[in-house]
Structures are given as C-alpha cells and as structure tokens.
C-alpha cells in the first residue's frame, strides 16, 4: 500500500484532507528536497512560487475540515517518504499555538 493510502486510512482523513495529501505527493514526487534549490523546485513543479528561501506549504480549507490533522499527516508523509525531521509551525496567536501544541502531544486524539 502506498504511503498516501496508508496515512489516509490510519488517520481516517476526510476527502479534502486526502486530496491535499495526494496533491502534496504528486508535487513532491518530482523533486529532491535535499538536493534541489528553491529555484529548481519552482521550475520542476511549475505554478508554485516560494516567497522564502525554503519551500513552505499552506493549504486553504474550510473551517472544521481538519487542517491540524492534515498538517500532522503531511509531517508524517514528509518524515516517512522524504526523511524530513524538523518542522516549523507558525500560528496566529497564543491560543491557537497552545491548542496546536496539545494536538501534537502524544496521547491526544
């Protein structure tokens, strides 16, 4: 079973979350995150432009779809398929930071 199906099943992802993960896999299958520069990644992927010196991801999903769960699925994907181990998560305030931190704490559902 491929990693996207595995993560989708194990995490019980909803359709919008699963489609976002499929999109991530489709885009990243064309690049080497360790060897390609941001410019090479932009050239290989096409429509994507980064406003930073590093690739960054942002998904716009409706309220209640499960963006935090999707973020966790993407982090697992990037760890398992691409070997990435460090992630920077930016939140718009302390309340959401505290909630996000709790969501990623072991044992939290």
TrEMBL record:
Residues 46-106 form the Helicase/UvrB N-terminal domain. Pfam families: ResIII. GO terms for molecular function: ATP binding; DNA binding; helicase activity; hydrolase activity. Keywords: ATP-binding, Helicase, Hydrolase, Nucleotide-binding. The keyword Nucleotide-binding applies. The keyword Ligase does not apply. It comes from the Bacteria. This is Type III restriction-modification enzyme helicase subunit. It comes from Candidatus Woesebacteria bacterium GW2011_GWA1_38_8.
């Amino acid at each position: 079973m491929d990693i996207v199906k595995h993560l989708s099943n194990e995490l019980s992802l909803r359709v919008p979350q699963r489609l976002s993960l499929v999109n991530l896999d489709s885009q990243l299958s064309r690049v080497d995150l360790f060897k390609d520069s941001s410019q090479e990644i932009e050239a290989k992927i096409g429509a994507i432009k980064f406003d930073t010196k590093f690739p960054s991801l942002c998904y716009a999903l409706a309220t209640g779809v499960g963006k935090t769960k999707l973020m966790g699925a993407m982090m697992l994907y990037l760890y398992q398929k691409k070997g990435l181990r460090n992630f920077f998560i930016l939140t718009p305030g302390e309340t959401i930071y505290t909630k996000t931190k709790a969501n990623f704490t072991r044992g939290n559902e």
